[in-house]
Design a protein that fits this description.
By secondary structure, this protein is of the alpha/beta class. The protein contains 22 helices and 5 strands. It has 3 domains: 126 residues, Rossmann fold (3-Layer(aba) Sandwich); 120 residues, Alpha Horseshoe (Serine Threonine Protein Phosphatase 5, Tetratricopeptide repeat), CATH 1.25.40; 166 residues, DNA Cyclobutane Dipyrimidine Photolyase, subunit A, domain 3 (Orthogonal Bundle). The chain has a 5-stranded parallel sheet, with helices on both faces. It is globular. It binds flavin-adenine dinucleotide. Its cofactor is FAD.
């Protein structure tokens, strides 16, 4: 008997609920990954993400080989390719992990129907979350739309421990190998073969061992100081695990267990507060995933009805300046250049640039959401959409009208302008107080080749507030 385990955003052979179940059946188990053309040709795909994905697949294939088993690769439409592979290999069952994204759910339902009609079993589990989307619900059995009560409920529940997986050796026999030619399977392509180039300036090593190392280093280095350090983009105060979590290179239960261990190793209140704050970030991840699961229309537009028809001004030139990091606002430009250069941006800066795009440039947040997806190594529908809707005042937020002052933000969170100077080198020799206050004289800007501010923050803030107040039903 043969079981296919279909990997999607769970690129590992450890701490995997479905893979552990498949391996406990005594059947032979092999893995498969499908390069979905619809995803790879979508205009929201980022070269950094594809490159990281391919690296993780290389590492996953190695883990299969090490166990004496194998990972197959197919390319095309999974709705066709997964059932074709399963029937060709006469698989008894296909296992996979459930996902919250609307596209994945429609795709998976269609595949499950085909497989079942071919007499092949389908086994699915939730794996990428500590609590499945319908597990954390309000007293009225409704999904949460506010984070704080979600966190309280989520945090009060016991969390599953990492799952042990014993991947058995499994080779296809000669007949199966001959049949396989009908599918056909492919060799693992490079990112370049898929049409993407990215040099990995982030130096982020793909794969499970690298992610486990990052987690261990973060727990040694910063988790205890996370509460104080997480807002300073010039520091390495966060985990850098977002891409690994996005692709499931590390199991979420393993990550949680590391926080519990860190907690057990300290008696300091500050350290415990740091660890709790980091756990809260993991809960934000789950909050936005359950939100996308219960309210799939979030992917299409504003959660709050009044904001569905907001009079955005959508000026293309301003948008282009924002994308290039040439708005004349140093903290915004530093952040956008960081994104453009390394495919990652610090969370504080994601909030600053998102507020700037929506509240200062008065551009539809969906433009920014898409631009982020085209660049981010960790680009993820639910986290990105949640972050953008929060910043645009259109999302799940009990106090939706928030406007960041880019100068105050820079003064608070980059007080020496170290981060700004790192990413906007033309400001290297400009005095810190001029950079932070926005008072760089026009002549200096001209001499160093740094633009004048493209808008006036106080004018735009008033304009945004007026527009916001004029939207029917907003109060
Ligand atoms: P850490 O601070 O170490 O946090 C640990 C983990 O918690 C992260 O890896 C991530 O998985 C999760 N997390 C942290 N903050 C959030 C959050 N606010 N929402 C959801 N999950 C969170 N995160 C993404 O993973 N993909 C995105 O596409 C994405 N887009 C964003 C867009 C905007 C406008 C904003 C404001 C935030 C976005 N975030 C996104 C959330 C956050 O910025 C990143 O998860 C974080 O910066 C990643 O760095 P880290 O791994 O060092 O995070």
């Amino acid at each position: 008997d043969l079981i296919l385990f279909w990997h999607r955003r769970d690129l590992r052979v450890s701490d995997s609920i479905g893979l552990a179940q498949a391996c406990n059946t005594n059947a032979r188990v092999i893995g498969v990954f499908c390069f979905d053309r619809a995803i790879l040709t979508n205009d929201s795909v980022a070269p950094a993400r594809v490159t990281y994905l391919v690296g993780c697949l290389q590492s996953l294939a190695k883990d299969y080989r090490r166990a004496g088993s194998q990972l197959l690769f197919v390319e095309g439409n999974p709705v066709v390719k997964i059932p074709l592979l399963a029937t060709t290999l006469k698989a008894q069952a296909v296992y996979w992990h459930l996902d919250i994204e609307p596209y994945s759910q429609t795709r998976d339902e269609s595949i499950a129907t085909t497989l079942k009609s071919d007499g092949i079993e389908v086994h699915t589990n939730w794996d990428q979350l500590l609590h499945a989307p319908s597990e954390i619900i309000t007293g009225n059995k409704q999904p949460y739309t506010v984070y704080t009560p979600f966190w309280r409920n989520w945090n009060s529940r016991s969390k599953p421990a990492p799952v042990e997986v014993k991947l058995p050796p499994c080779q296809l026999d000669a007949t199966e190998l001959t049949d396989l030619a009908q599918v056909p399977t492919i060799d693992l392509p490079t990112a370049k073969d898929l049409g993407f180039t990215w040099e990995n300036p982030l130096k982020l090593e793909p794969g499970t061992s690298a992610a486990a190392r990052e987690l261990a280093e973060f727990c040694d280095r910063s988790i205890c100081e996370y509460d104080e350090q997480r807002n300073y983009p010039a520091l390495t105060g966060t985990s850098g695990l977002s891409a690994a979590l996005k692709f499931g290179v590390i199991g979420i239960r393993t990550v949680w267990a590391a926080t519990i261990e860190a907690m057990a190793q300290t008696s300091s209140d500050e350290a415990r507060a740091g660890i709790t704050t980091w756990q809260q970030e993991l809960a934000w991840r789950e909050f936005y995933q359950q939100a996308m699961y219960h309210f799939p229309s979030l992917a299409q537009g504003a959660y709050r009805d009044p904001l569905k028809h907001f009079p955005w001004q959508d000026d293309q030139n301003r948008f282009d300046a924002w994308c290039r990091g040439e708005t004349g606002y140093p903290i915004v430009d530093a952040a956008m250049r960081q994104l453009n250069e390394i495919g990652w941006m610090h969370n504080r800066c994601r909030m600053i640039v998102a507020s700037f795009l929506t509240k200062d440039l008065i551009i539809n947040w969906q433009w920014g959401e898409k631009y982020f997806m085209q660049r981010l190594i960790d680009g993820d529908l639910s986290a990105n959409n949640g972050g953008w809707q929060w910043s645009a005042s259109s999302g799940m937020d009990p106090k939706p009208l928030r406007i960041f002052n880019p100068y105050t933000q820079a003064q608070k969170f980059d007080p020496e302008a170290d981060y700004i100077r790192q990413w906007v080198p033309e400001l290297k020799s400009v005095e810190t107080n001029l950079i932070l206050s926005g008072n760089i004289p026009p002549l200096t800007r001209h001499q160093i080749g740094y633009p004048l501010p493209i808008v006036d923050h106080s004018v735009q803030q008033r304009l945004f507030k007026d527009l916001y107040a004029s939207v029917k039903g907003v109060a």
